[in-house]
Amino acid sequence: MSRTTRLLTLLQVLRGKSRPVTAATLAGELEISERTLYRDIAELTALGAPIYGEAGIGYVLRSGLFLPPLMLNADETEAIVLGLRYVDQRGDEVLSKAAADALAKIAAVLAPEALEALHNPTVMPGPPGYGFAPNAVPLNVFRQATRNQAKLHIDYADVNQVPTQRLIWPLALGFLNEVRIIVAWCELRGAYRTFRTDRILQASEQGERYPGRRSDLLRTWRKQMQLDDAGRFTPDKN
Hints:
Layout: H1 3-15, H2 23-30, H3 34-46, E1 51-54, E2 58-61, H4 74-90, H5 93-109, H6 112-119, H7 139-148, E3 150-157, E4 163-175, E5 180-186, E6 191-196, E7 200-209, H8 214-225
Antiparallel strand pairs: 1-2, 3-4, 3-7, 4-5, 5-6
């Protein structure tokens, strides 16, 4: 982790803490020594970060003018909160943590008049669903392969538990109410397919990038499915 990234990560960790947290705890979360942490705290404070505390007691990030306010109105704030709460309910551990971190970042830079909408929104997500079937392959494997445009070899079992082996080009993960899917180009079928992640028994990268740009392939899939860029159904007007 670079020094700049480490300093920004430390700020983010402090934003998510409502009470003072000890140097040992912060150092553990960042996987650095306490000596390095003390230097980072001193540097951030010198730059104007409103960090209050001392060694042996703990540190807390107070409200202040360290970051410019984010000018969102109440409706915009509630839309973001609703979306992040939905992600927290239906995402995996990685996305749930990312949603919490994003919410802490937004809270730190919201204008005062928008904070009421953040803390007491008038909209709420529905119940968290019925739970998801366990995955044999961690979702992060699919996420990383998608970002790397890496071909994946998967062992897949269909609804009748019939096994097949596929070589796919992963394009996106989908989080539905009861299942999670991966959108991909399937070399066996020569077409776009969706695969339930709980039916993928094994997955491994082949050390080969698939051709073209993921954004172009995803755009073609959306067109076939009559979806817009936000995933909304757009029926053919012809």
